[in-house]
Structure formats: structure tokens, C-alpha cells
Amino acid sequence: MFHTRFTELFGVEHPIVMGGMMWVGRAELVAAVAEAGALGFLTALTQPTPEDLAVEIERTRELTDKPFGVNLTILPAIKPPPYERYAQVIVDSGVPVVETAGSNPEPFLPVFKAAGIKVIHKCTSVRHAVKAQRVGVDCVSIDGFECAGHPGEDDVPGLILIRAAARALTIPIIASGGIADGAGLVAALALGADGVNMGTRFMCTQEAPIHHRIKQQIVGNSELDTRLILRTLHNTARVANNAVSRKVIEIEAAGGEFEDVRELVMGVRGRQAMAEGDIDGGIWTAGQVQGLIDDIPTCAEVIARMVCEAAELVGCDLIRMIDGMGATLHSADLVRGVK
Fold first, then answer.
1. Which pLDDT score, from 0 to 100, does residue 1 have?
2. According to the model, what pLDDT value does residue 29 have?
3. 234-237 long-range contacts, Cβ below 8 Å, gap at least 24?
């Protein structure tokens, strides 16, 4: 129904992406997204070893024969994961698309390109998106300030950032942050994006491999129920408002350094909290879009009603425009890239 450069390039039915999410991007969720006609990403570093990633890729293939990808987030660390080995597993497994994030993806592009793998790079600024295009990625996912996780340090919301990126780039763009429904899809396409990425919305689905209490908390939360942590350390992260995130902010406000909050922000605590449903057990990411989420449907239901709502919005606007102008138009005249 909505055919864009993104759907054509990646061979999916709908211009909707479930990007990589630590501890969440596992086989059952990714396969459900793929079966519903969108593009989902396994999160490589959720798997303890590259060998475990290979097993998870095969597990996903047992659940769907439709396209899916793998997210590889590359960050500097005192003892970094074996990124090259994870990348090689992706290549050897024949995955058609990779989502990179964190650092510059350029060092990994030759091995991916040689294998015919398409690369989407996640960016939080126009300047980073322009550089990603220059080094040869196939598509960028542009994250507005509303997004869960790391929104960068520029504090530019999606309404501006998506449009600015569309004006600066020639490759396809995925809009990320603050999107949960068909209205968000239409808005993103109108701003110049070729599709949308959703994280928090897919966390709050039946297939998401996290505890039901976390999902219920997302439903109960409003757009005000997130906190920005690690701002003073220039590593800003948007997370759910809970006892742990409030404590981190308190320590930062008192002049604390990373060592003072390390135990609070450890990934293992967040993983355990999401697995056990302990709302205040650790840091877990969530976007301001929580305020637009009021149920826990299946992935198929999310995607189907999102596309139907978007089509209805475009159709209603089309009828109004025709009535007002006495002209014959197609919906593509209202939303760029829609056929």
C-alpha cells in the first residue's frame, strides 16, 4: 500500500522498521515483525558470543522465511566485544541487511559490501548522516531527541531533524523517535523520510521477550515518564523514569563521575529488570512515545492498523483536496513516495 525507496531497496511490504534493542531484539520478536511485512533486527550484542548470534539467526529463520537483519552497535570500550567476529558471523549467515550504530561504520563496510549486505546506519545528527552517506551506507536511520536510548547531544527533535536530513541526503531515510501509529508514519513520509523505525512501540507487544509488568508500565506511562541520564558525562540516554534513573540524575547533579553511577547503569541490571519485571531494578530504555501507547497487541496488529490508519489519513486528505480544488490527484501527491 505504501511503496517507498525503502520498501523497494529492502524487499519488504511496509516501510516500517524494528531497530536493534539491547535485550529485546531476539528471534521471536524479529520473526513476528518480518511475518507482518516489516523489517526487524536481531541485536547482535544481546547474544553473549558470536557463536550464540549464529544460533539466534538460525532460530529466526526457523520462524520466518521473510527478510530480517542484524544490528551491530560499535562502541569504544576498555574491553570491547569481538566486533569483527560478530560481523563475520553476519556475513557467513547470509543475512541481507545490517543496522550499524554507535561509531563510524566505515571500517566494517568492505566486508559487508563484499557479501552483498545492505547497511543502514543510525544517526542522531545531519552531519553524521551526511558522513555515513559519504562513506557508502545504503540508508540512514535518523533519531530525533524524543527517541529511547541515545539521542545524541544536539537535542534536535524529529520534526526538524527528519526534514533537515531529507534536504541534505540522497539515500533513503528512516525516521526514528516519537512514532507509534499511522499518523506518525504519514508525518514522517511527508517530512521526506522513506519509512519509520519504532522501538518502544515494539517493546510493548505480545511477542517482545520482556516481562509483562514492563509492558504494563509502558502503557501506564505518559510522555513525561522518561529521564535523561548521563547528560553531564556527554553520553545522554533517554530511559524510563524509575528509582534507578532518578538516583543517577541525583548523583550527576552532585558532581558525580561515571564511576559513581557505574553499578546503577550496568547493562546486566537492566536485563534482569526487564526479564523479571522489576520496574525499579535497573535502567531500561523507553521513549517519550510512551504517551501514545495504550495497549499490548501483537506485532501483526500494530503494523496492520498502523498502515490502515495511515492510508485512511492520506485518503481523507486526498478527498478534501479534490473537493477543494476540483482536481484529480493520487495519494502520492500528498505523501512523497506513496503509490
1. 77
2. 98
3. 234/153, 235/150, 236/150, 236/151, 236/152, 236/153, 237/149, 237/150, 237/283, 237/285
Q: Quick check: is 150 in a domain? A: yes
Domain range holding 41?
5-210+291-308
91 shares a domain with 44 = yes
- Asked if 17 and 42 count as a contact pair (C-beta separation under 8 A), the reply is no
**Cα gap 233→237, rounded to integer Å:** 10
Instruction: Give, as one character, the DSSP assignment of residue 155.
Output: -
Residues with Cβ within 8 Å of 326's Cβ and at least 6 positions away in sequence, in order, are none
178 plus 196 within the same structural domain: yes
Q: Read off the pTM.
A: 0.92
Instruction: Please give the pLDDT value at position 194.
Output: 98
Separation CA 218–CA 251 (nearest Å): 25
Q: How many CA atoms does the CB half-sphere of 159 hold within 13 Å?
A: 0
Distances (CA, A) of 61 to 34, 65, 68, 118, 209: 10, 6, 9, 18, 17
Q: Which of 169, 167, 175, 170 is nearest to 194 (CA)?
A: 175
Q: DSSP secondary-structure letter at 10? A: H
HSE at residue 49, side-chain half, CA atoms within 13 A, is 3
